[in-house]
Amino acid sequence: MLLPTPVILIIHEPDAAAQYSNILDKTGAKVHVVNSFQDANELLSFLHPDLILLTAQMEEGDGRIYCQQIRATLTHPRPVLVLLHSSEDVNERISCFRYGADDVLGENIDKSELAIRVLAHLRRRQEELSHPLTQLPGAIMIRRMLEQSLVSDRPWAALSIDLNNLRVYNETYGDLAGDQLIKALGAILVDSVSDNDFAGHIEADDFLVITAPERRLELADRICHQFDEISKRFYPSEDVRRGYLVATRRGGIRRRVPLISIAVGIVSSHTKRFQSYVDVLTTARDFRYMAKLSPGSNWAGDHMPQQTKQQKSDQPRSRILVVEPDGAMACLLQEILSLEGYNVEVTNSADDALSLARDTHPDLILLESTLSDRRMDGWGLCRIVKEDKQLSNIWVVMVTSHPDQSLALESGADLYLPKPFDMPMLLSEVSLLLRSRQV
């Protein structure tokens, strides 16, 4: 797996600086050379080196004082400070550490030893900048990798990846169980990427992969497939059989939450000229949000055709079927939902509701559990709708005062709303469900 190229800054007199540069170039790092502290300050205003190699004896001043200055002015992550000192006096070397050097080496150090020591410091720095949970490169190394990709001639694609429904999973099974899922996703990424790819862990369940543009779709599909295969091991068997978890929200609202899955947003240097690493991350996350609008593990990217504003405005209004035996409540719901811009039909009969559902296929059914039909109540109607392949994708919001809250979800409802309810709360939940299907 690729890692960002380390950056080294050498501050020394011209001849010695050139000699050390030749040695450290062979470590694979990007080496910059300056011959004064003033030039170094100008370079550090935009360069973020991983390691600074400097001498204690410069014509313009003491390298130890400059180490002290770097520690005082540069924020995390501060570069490793390796000071070259010609004195063999132990007290002199100790004073270098007191001024802020991370390591002190003799000016006449062996070339091989210098290279090995520098590599050891760079390895340690990479470990410190890795995410503690997955040991993948962390946010700072991801930023460095994206910045290097932006100035590279090599085409690239970035995959932004996170988990769907992690909050509900953590509430149900605990944060430690959620951490194990995040570690599993990190392991899948390491297993999926090639030697020429990069995988990093930004924070929480937020990951980023950089790969070749021609591999982006295959890689996204592979990651989704592998996660779906392994994620079921993190649930009790009864939850896997049921196929969902139950989330309880403000006001006693209970909803069925699908088992955890992943969303992948894909961007490529082939389709857009990005201005910064932040531009890459935000654009990829926008596509990741689009992927979340489809059920299960899914991906979306800049290779997909986008709707224009005109096309979006031409989309038909969402259709809602209200099944409510109380005439006054039915009229109130019809009026309020119509004012919100929905096409609303109303009935008090389960048979009529089923017939309307098959004829008009509404986007959402607002269903009272207690109906006057002798043959079928709200629970039965909900089961029929959800078991019918042509109707099963209709959202069903079960409105009931029944004391057994689990019955609504077990019958197939997507949302349980206890009576009495606040009308703004109902509108908010209906809007949330309908928008989740608008890709």
Q: How does this structure look, described?
A:
This protein is α/β, with parallel strands linked by helices and 439 residues long. It has three domains: 7-128, 3-Layer(aba) Sandwich (Rossmann fold), CATH 3.40.50; 139-243 and 259-301, Alpha-Beta Plaits, CATH 3.30.70; 315-435, Response regulator (Rossmann fold, 3-Layer(aba) Sandwich). Helix content is 44%, strand content 22%. A seven-stranded mixed β-sheet has the order 11-12-19-18-17-15-16, sandwiched between helices. Strands 2-1-3-6-7 form a five-stranded parallel β-sheet, sandwiched between helices. Strands 9-10-8-13-14 form a five-stranded mixed β-sheet, with helices on both faces. The longest helix is centred in the first third of the chain and has 18 residues, at 111-128. It is elongated, with a radius of gyration of 30 Å. The model is unreliable at 307-312 (pLDDT under 50).
Query: Which descriptor suits the 3D outline?
Result: elongated
Arithmetic mean of pLDDT: 90
Helix count from the secondary structure assignment: 17
User: What is the level 1 CATH name of the largest domain?
Assistant: Alpha Beta
Helical content stands at: 40-55%
Structure class: alpha/beta
